[in-house]
Amino acid sequence: MSDTEGNRAYGKKSFKRSKSHFADRVTADGRDGWPVEAGRYRLVVSRACPWASRAVISRRLLGLEDALSMAIADPIQDDRSWRFTLDPGGRDPVLGIRYLGEAYEAREPGAPGGVSVPALVDVPTSRLVTNDYQRLTLDLATEWTALHRKGAPDLYPADLRDEIDEVMAQVYEDVNNGVYRAGFATGQKEYEAACEGVFRRLELLSERLAGRRYLVGDTITEADIRLFTTLVRFDAVYHGHFKCNRWKLTEDPVLWAYSRDLYQTPGFGDTVDFDHIKRHYYQVHTGINPTGIVPLGPDLSGWLTSHGREELGGRPFGDGSPPGPVREGEEVPAAGRPRTSAGSLRMCR
To answer: Is residue 10 annotated as part of the catalytic site, yes or no?
Structure first.
C-alpha cells in the first residue's frame, strides 16, 4: 500500500496499482546480492495493510521470528510515508529511522512509486532491499527454508504451484485489487464494473470452497493467505468505505465459515488488528472519507464462533504443526481483537 500522492488524492483519480520498483530478491544463493541470513533484514509492515499482512502471517506460520525481525508502522501514515510513531521516541529501535521513506531514499533518492509496505530493509545500512509484495512471501516460503521452524508448513508446495498461481491470479485481479478499484473509482461505470467483478469472483470462490476446506489441496497454502487478508477486512472497511456492499461477508455462509476457520487458526487471527485496519482506511483516505470519522461497527464477536469446517477434512499444517504462542511484544492489543469472555481465541489445531 503506497502513499504516492498524499492522502487527499485517494478517490480523485482512477486507481492503478503500480508494480514494485524495487524487485530484488533475498535468496538462499544470494544471486541478487542479498543472501538469506538470520538477523540481516527487518520486515517493515502495517497491520492495517492487506499486502503487508500476508508477510506477517507467513513469517509467523514459518517460524521466522528469530531470523527476521519485524517493525510495525503507525496505521495513520502522513504524506511523508509510514511512520514509526508507535515506538519510543518515534524511531524504529533497530533501523533508527522515523519514516520508512528514509530507507527508500537511502536506496535510491527520489525513486518513483511511493513508499509502500511490506518492505525488507537491510539492517546494517538501513537501506531498502525490496518492496515486491507479490514475490516476498513466496520467497519466505521457498528461499528461507533453512531458517524455518521445525514443523513449518509448506505454503507453496511444488506439485501444486501451477494451480496455486492460477487461483492467486484470479483472487488478486478481482478481489485483492478489485476492492481498491471499486473504492477509489471516480465514475459510476468504473465503480460498477469493479464492484461487479469483486462479487462475481467471491461467488465463484464460495462455490469452490463449499466442498473443500482450503483453496488448493487439503492444507493451507499461500492462496489462502492472500484471500484471507481481503476477507478479514471486508465487513470492517470494504463493505462501507469502499462501497462493496452487495452483501456482507457474514451473509455468505461458505466464505464466512471459511474466514472464521482461518481466523481461528494460529498465525492468522492472532496477527489481525481491527483497530489499525479501521483507523487506517477511514482516517487516511480523506479523499473518500473527508470527515475522518471511524465507524463503531461491525460487531467482531462472530469471528470467535464455531465454523464447522472441520467436517470437510483437511490438515491445516499438513505434516507440520501449528506455530507456538505469539512472541512477546508482537501481540495484537486488546483494542484490535474481538472480545471474548474466555479471554482467548479458540484455535484450530
So the answer is: no
